[in-house]
Each structure stands twice: as C-alpha cells, then as structure tokens.
Design a protein that fits this description.
There is one protein chain. The chain has 291 residues and is α/β, with parallel strands linked by helices. The termini are far apart. The chain has a 6-stranded mixed beta sheet, sandwiched between helices. A 3-stranded mixed beta sheet has the order 7-8-9. Bound molecules: guanosine-5'-triphosphate and magnesium ion (MG). Guanosine-5'-triphosphate binds next to helix 1.
C-alpha cells in the first residue's frame, strides 16, 4: 500500500486547547499545557507514525494582537503554519463567538485547502449550547467540516485522528519514522521549567521569563541540567528568587520532578536567575533565544 504523509496544523485563539489536542492525538504528553493563556510560544511539531502513514501535527501559539516583538514572532510562527498545511485544524472553544474571532477566521479563510473547525471543551456545556455552537460556526466558516470535541476527555479524538490520516496525500515520510518531534530534549526541558513558572508565578512574571538550557548531560542513573532563567528587569529577578530563595527552590523541586518523569532518570537541576534587559522587545535577543 502506498505511504501517506502530510502536515496537519492547528491554529486558534489562546487557551482554547491546541496543545491539549496535539497531546491527545499523539497519545502522550509532548507539549506543555496550562490554564494561563500564551503558554505556547513556538510552532512545535508532534509526529504520529504508522506503518503506512506519517501525520505531522503542528502546535502553534494562540492568535492575538501583538503587544511586543516576541508576540510578532509568535504570529509569524502561526502564519508559517498556514503555508505548508495539508489540512488546517481551526480550534475554537465552546462559548467563543465568531464576531470576536476575526484574527482566527481571517487566517482560516485565507487558507484554501481542506479545513476542519473543532468546537472544543464541549464537556463544559449542555446539548443546547453545543448545537448552537455547531450551527454558529458552520455559518461563520461554511467551507469547513465542523465537529464537537473534548480534547481533555478524549471525545471524538480517535475519530478525528482516523479522519485526518484518511485525508493525507500519498507522500513518503517527511521525518525518520521513529522521530516524535522536530525539537530536542533541551527544548522540552526548557518548556517543562516554563510550565512550572506559569503555574507558580503571578502577573507578568511568566510572560517576562525566558528559559535557556545551557547543558544537558544524560547519564545512566543521573541527568545533569543547568538552565538560566532570563528576566527583563532586576525587580523581576527578586520575585523569581523570592524571600531567602524560597520561590526558586520550590520551582526547582517541581520542575525537577517533571523532568525526571520525562527523561526517566534522577535529575540534578541547577537554575540561575539572570537579567537581560527588555529581551522580549529586541530582535537580536529574540533570535538568540530561538524566536
Ligand atoms: N474542560 C475542558 N478543558 C480543556 C479542554 N481542552 C483543554 N482544556 C483546558 O484548557 C486550558 C488551556 O489548554 P492548552 O492546551 O494549554 O491551550 P492552548 O490553546 O494550547 O493555549 P496557548 O498555548 O496558551 O495558546 C488548560 O487548562 C486545559 O486543561 C477540554 O476539552 N475541556
Ligand atoms: Mg498551547
């Protein structure tokens, strides 16, 4: 049988569940998920391999009106995903209104290939809400197949996976068949640390922090990791460290436990807090940090 392969790229507003969906389709936790918006900052590939198919999924940052240069880079990552998609997945959540989703809809309309619009989080509503939403979104994007979904609880996830594989064009694999992502271990370690920062720190702190993994030495029984937490200002450095270093110790403990589950060995994690003034606004600094 001929081999099928293609790109299925997921776009949507912040916090609608794009990363949760990518993990659900892959059947494992690859990308970070958090109740706070703007969790995902990059386009990240998750690769689903079968004997006769390779589904290359893209997670993307939530679509927003850029407030600073990092946001602009994030939106470029979204737009890039519109260029190579074989199938576009537009994710919205129950209760979201199309009149207030022009950023997402204009991109979806610009894409001329096959598209699916998924109404996520239907576990949080009743039948009337769901029927209403399906009708509403079918009218807003008539060319898309509109389907209800709960990425978190697995409703329609296997059906979606089968449908997407069905839609793939005949093509040789794009990546080696044992690859799970285009990103390396260092990237996922930095993301796991960032996920804990999103959970434990308030207000602007998570949005002002960049995590840089400088070394990652994997041994049989112990993995040694050194990472810098780059803040925009001195005052933020103080908050990150906390009184007597308490906040940073808690972050280190929680991040280490998450990384241990991921790498499967004990982990020694050394975190240093640094300041790189206004790194989020500066094109050269953003480039250095992988944006
Ligand atoms: N009730 C419910 N919650 C969900 C569902 N899918 C995702 N969530 C929750 O929604 C929140 C955001 O999920 P993410 O997957 O991080 O959303 P995202 O679209 O990737 O967000 P950004 O990366 O910030 O744009 C998390 O708290 C998830 O647990 C769902 O099907 N039902
Ligand atoms: Mg995300």
């Amino acid at each position: 049988m001929a081999h099928k392969a293609g790109y299925v790229n997921i776009i949507g507003e912040p916090n609608v569940g794009k990363s949760t969906l990518l993990n659900a389709l892959l059947g494992q936790k690859l990308v970070i998920v958090n109740p706070k918006a703007q969790t995902t900052r990059h386009r990240i590939l998750g690769i689903l391999n079968g004997d006769d198919h390779q589904l290359v999924l893209s997670d993307t940052p939530g679509i927003l009106d850029p407030q600073y240069r990092m946001h602009e880079r994030m939106m470029e990552a979204v737009d890039e995903a519109l260029l190579d998609a074989d199938v576009l997945v537009v994710l919205v959540e129950l209760g979201q209104r199309s009149e207030r989703s022009e950023n997402v809809l204009s991109r979806a309309r610009r894409f001329k290939g096959p598209k699916v619009l998924l109404v996520n989080k239907v576990d949080a509503g009743n039948d009337d809400d769901i029927l209403d939403a399906l009708e509403h979104w079918s009218a807003a994007l008539p060319e898309a197949k509109v389907v209800p979904l709960s990425a978190l609880h697995g409703l329609n996830v296997q059906e979606l996976k089968a449908y997407l594989i069905e839609r793939l064009p005949e093509h040789p694999p794009y990546f080696p068949k044992d690859d799970l992502s285009d990103r390396n271990m260092r990237f996922f370690v930095s993301e796991m640390i960032r996920e804990k920062i999103l959970t434990f720190y308030k207000q602007e702190i998570p949005y002002s922090t960049q995590v840089v993994v400088n070394s990652f030495e994997e041994g049989e029984a112990l993995t040694k990791i050194q990472a810098d937490l780059i803040m925009m200002r001195e005052s933020q450095k103080g908050i990150m460290i906390g009184e007597g270093g308490k906040a940073l110790r808690k972050l280190g403990t929680e991040a280490r436990a998450a990384i241990e589950r991921f790498v499967g060995t004990k982990v020694f994690l050394d975190l240093k807090v640094k300041v790189d003034p206004e790194w989020r606004e500066d094109a050269d600094k953003l480039k250095k940090y992988g944006y």
